[in-house]
């Protein structure tokens, strides 16, 4: 009986502790009352030692009431588990007392069964109690875990927000950088265009003196032969007056020959001027049937005289080996002319440098040759200069790479040549060099 | 009088032959032509005592007129030929160099043939 009361007391206490504060308000009084009642029942039990029946039934009533309350009220649902654990014991206890009340004799007979059942009920109660405790602990653990996860996810959430702000800032910075770079790129493109133009003008400058020389010679011939022809015509008339028709005829032939020479040299000067104009003009970008041998020869002479004009002490042998079967092929004449001029100017520069080093005993030679191959035409410019050092060989076609002293080379010649031959004409430009001995640049152009 | 004309322009031969056609016909002058400095030296080596006057251009591929002049003056040909250099207009550098090397006279391009004829009279 006392066990029952103690149980009741602790259940009230447990309920009071385990209920959430807002739910507790209306129940608190009942629980405190229950606890007080339990205490009172103990006192009553001690005082009415001889007649335990009243105390017993009070206790039963209280516990049954409690169980009823727990099962009926939703707020108290969490305590159901606890009720299940004590229910068999309470039920047995009530049944035992009931049987005792109705038939004390039968109760005595059944005493052993009741004892055993009570034992089982207590074991049940303890086992249930332990299971509940265990479950409760697991539940609490689970709850703590969930809380932890929630806390973590909150932290992650805040970090994410911070990150997003950072990303936005970075994106803005990057966008600004991109715009700055784009602007720099545009400026660079403009500068590049200017540089290409100035490279063209620089090579034109190198040519000017050569052009002057090249035009002077044919003009001298034109003037001289036309003067001679004037004289010859007078002589022819004199011979005719004298009746020497044979002599007059001979003079007539000379006049005609001279006339051809005048025409030839006039055309020569014309070609040079045209070449110069072509060189200075921006490329038409239109491929025309072009005589490669003539083009190469024209620029060979221009480059040679251009260099001579700049450096009076310089001289070099020019060798040419033109394959007449090359004929005309479709190229952009200004562009290919620039390439050839470039290679020849470089070749002359190389032999001039070597001449400065070696002096007498070295015969600077630049050789230009053409050859008709299957489906393509080869143009080769060979010099016996100092060659190209291996360590710079793979840089020579890079823009702005130059071995010339500052201010003497733009470093664009070969890179532009490469673009013109490889990209514009679908050809190939190949360098072959032996250090200290020679360099050959070979262009292959598709027919 | 035998005159060696050195120039890389081949038409110079026709020009001289026509300009001096009367003199040639009258056997007053005889022209030989060389189209490079090397050719000129080669000719001189084989015809040592014949050439009286050498008329040379300066701007030539290979051996230049200056180099030719230097070699002629070094060879002490007998009799020493008169060397007349043809310089481009305003080319003071080559002019001075040739003078230093012992050039006997100068002509400026374009060649004034009347002036040349006057000079030739003085030589012969």
Layout of helices and strands, plus pairs?
The complex is a heterodimer of chains A (447) and B (124).
Chain A: H1 2-18, H2 21-47, H3 53-72, H4 80-102, H5 104-242, H6 245-280, E1 288-291, H7 292-310, E2 317-321, E3 328-331, H8 333-358, E4 365-373, E5 376-383, H9 390-393, H10 413-424, E6 428-434, E7 438-446
Helix pairs in contact in A: 1-2, 2-3, 3-4, 4-5, 5-6, 5-7, 7-8, 8-10
Chain B: E1 2-6, H1 11-19, H2 21-25, E2 30-34, H3 37-46, E3 51-57, H4 65-75, E4 82-87, H5 92-100, E5 105-108, H6 113-123
Parallel strand pairs in B: 1-2, 1-3, 3-4, 4-5
Helix pairs in contact in B: 3-4
Short structural summary:
The complex is a heterodimer of chains A (447) and B (124). Chain A is an alpha+beta fold.
- Report the biggest beta sheet of chain A as strand number plus sense, adding barrel if it closes: 5 strands, mixed
Give the % helix of chain B: 40-55%
Element-level helix/strand string of chain A: HHHHHHEHEEHEEHHEE
CATH class of the domain at 292-447 in chain A equals: Alpha Beta
- In total, the number of strands of chain A is 7
Kindly state the percentage of residues in helix of chain A: over 70%
The backbone outline of chain A, from C-alpha atoms, is rod-shaped
Structural class based on helices, strands and sheet pairing of chain B: alpha/beta
- Which value, in Å, is the CA radius of gyration of chain B? 13 Å
Distance between the termini of chain B: 7 Å
Strand residue percentage of chain A: 5-15%
Number of alpha- plus pi-helical segments of chain B:
6
Spell the H/E element sequence of chain B. Answer: EHHEHEHEHEH
What brief labels describe this structure?
heterodimer; A: 447 residues; alpha+beta; Heat Shock Protein 90; 5-stranded mixed β-sheet; 72% helix; B: 124 residues; alpha/beta; Rossmann fold; 5-stranded parallel β-sheet; 6 helices; 5 strands; globular
């Amino acid at each position: 009986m006392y066990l029952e009361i103690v149980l009741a007391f602790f259940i009230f206490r447990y309920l009071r502790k385990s209920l959430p504060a807002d739910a507790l308000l209306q129940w608190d009084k009942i629980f405190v009352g229950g606890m007080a009642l339990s205490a009172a029942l103990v006192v009553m039990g001690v005082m009415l030692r001889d007649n335990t029946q009243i105390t017993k039934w009070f206790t039963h009533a209280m516990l049954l009431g409690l169980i009823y309350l727990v099962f009926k009220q939703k707020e108290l649902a969490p305590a159901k588990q606890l009720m299940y654990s004590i229910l068999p014991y309470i039920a047995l206890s009530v049944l035992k007392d009931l049987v005792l009340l109705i038939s004390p004799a039968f109760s005595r007979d059944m005493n052993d069964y009741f004892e055993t059942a009570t034992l089982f009920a207590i074991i049940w109660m303890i086992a249930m109690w332990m299971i509940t405790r265990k479950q409760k602990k697991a539940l609490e653990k689970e709850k703590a875990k969930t809380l932890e996860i929630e806390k973590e996810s909150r932290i992650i959430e805040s970090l994410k927000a911070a990150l997003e702000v950072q990303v936005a800032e970075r994106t803005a910075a990057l966008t600004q950088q991109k715009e700055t770079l784009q602007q720099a790129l545009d400026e660079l493109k403009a500068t590049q265009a200017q540089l290409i133009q100035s490279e063209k003008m620089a090579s034109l400058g190198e040519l000017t003196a050569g052009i002057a020389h090249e035009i002077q010679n044919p003009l001298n011939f034109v003037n001289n032969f036309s003067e001679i022809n004037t004289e010859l015509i007078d002589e022819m008339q004199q011979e005719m007056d004298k009746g020497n028709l044979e002599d007059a005829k001979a003079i007539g032939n000379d006049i005609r020959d001279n006339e051809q020479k005048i025409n030839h040299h006039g055309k020569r000067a014309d070609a040079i001027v045209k070449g110069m104009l072509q060189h200075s003009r921006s490329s038409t970008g239109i491929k025309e049937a072009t005589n490669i041998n003539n083009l190469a020869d024209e620029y060979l002479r221009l480059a040679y005289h251009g260099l001579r004009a700049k450096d009076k002490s310089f001289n070099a042998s020019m060798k040419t080996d033109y394959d007449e079967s090359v004929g005309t092929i479709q190229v952009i004449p200004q562009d290919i002319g620039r390439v050839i001029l470039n290679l020849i100017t470089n070749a002359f520069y190389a032999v001039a440098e070597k001449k400065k080093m070696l002096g007498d005993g070295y015969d600077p030679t630049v050789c230009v040759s053409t050859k008709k191959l299957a489906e393509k035409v080869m143009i080769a410019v060979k010099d016996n200069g100092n060659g190209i050092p291996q360590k710079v060989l793979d840089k020579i076609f890079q823009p702005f790479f130059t071995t010339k002293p500052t201010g003497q080379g733009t470093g664009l010649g070969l890179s532009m040549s490469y673009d013109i031959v490889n990209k514009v004409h679908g050809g190939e430009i190949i360098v072959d060099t032996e250090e200290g001995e020679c360099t050959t640049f070979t262009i292959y152009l598709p027919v | 009088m035998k005159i060696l004309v050195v120039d890389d322009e081949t038409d110079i031969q026709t020009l001289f032959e026509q300009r001096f056609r009367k003199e040639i016909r009258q056997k007053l002058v005889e022209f030989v032509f060389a189209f490079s400095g090397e050719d000129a030296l080669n000719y001189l080596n084989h015809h040592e005592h014949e050439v009286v006057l050498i008329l040379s251009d300066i701007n030539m591929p290979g051996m230049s007129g200056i180099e030719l002049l230097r070699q002629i003056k070094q060879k002490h040909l007998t009799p020493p030929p008169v060397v007349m250099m043809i310089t481009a207009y305003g080319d003071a550098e080559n002019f001075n160099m040739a003078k230093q090397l012992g050039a006997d006279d100068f002509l400026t391009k374009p060649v004034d043939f009347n002036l040349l004829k006057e000079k030739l009279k003085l030589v012969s």
